[in-house]
Amino acid sequence: MSRLQKKKPVSEKKKQRAVAENPTGSSDSPSGFSSSKSAIVASSLKAKSEKSLMDAKTGEPNFFQKTMDFFREVKIELKKVTWPTRKQTTGTTIVVIIFVFVIAVFLGLFDFGLSKLVQVVLT
Q: Where are the domains of the chain?
């Protein structure tokens, strides 16, 4: 077969639609498609109307539905989180507070030393 004659893979929706249109499995030609042009046009119109009907039924979710889905997924993800115990939270909070005081004292002493240096140089 040449490159243009290769058969394209059939999607699941197309398979289901073909079965729904022709449940017996018989067809007019070996390829599974009817040979008359009117049958092709009719099946095309039917497929388009089915698609628009499916879109109307399912439809694109509106803003409210998207927001609700988002919060539902957030809730699911938050259930997967390993939360620290009260003891771990208290311990890490104390470490952070002590570290902040140590850095504050260091920066305060450094600032005081530089300000005294500037005063000595300028006077």
A: 11-81, 85-123
Q: CA 84, 88, 90, 92 torsion: positive or negative?
A: negative
Predicted confidence (pLDDT) per residue in 27-73, tens digit: 444 454 445 566 666 666 666 666 555 555 566 778 999 999 999 99
Terminal CA-CA length for the chain: 96
Q: In b/e form, how buried is each residue of 15-37, taking b as 16+ CB within 10 angstroms?
A: eebbeeeeeeeeeeeeeeebeee
User: What residues have CB less than 8 Å from 35, skipping those under 6 apart?
Assistant: 28, 29
The two structure tokens encoding residue 118: 């500037």
pLDDT, tens digit, for every residue of 62-109? 899 999 999 999 999 999 999 999 999 999 999 999 999 999 999 999
The whole-angstrom separation of Cα 79 and Cα 74 is: 9
In whole angstroms, give the CA distance from residue 70 to residue 59: 18
The one-letter amino acid code at 23 reads: P
Rounded to whole angstroms, the Cα distance separating 12 from 93 reads 56
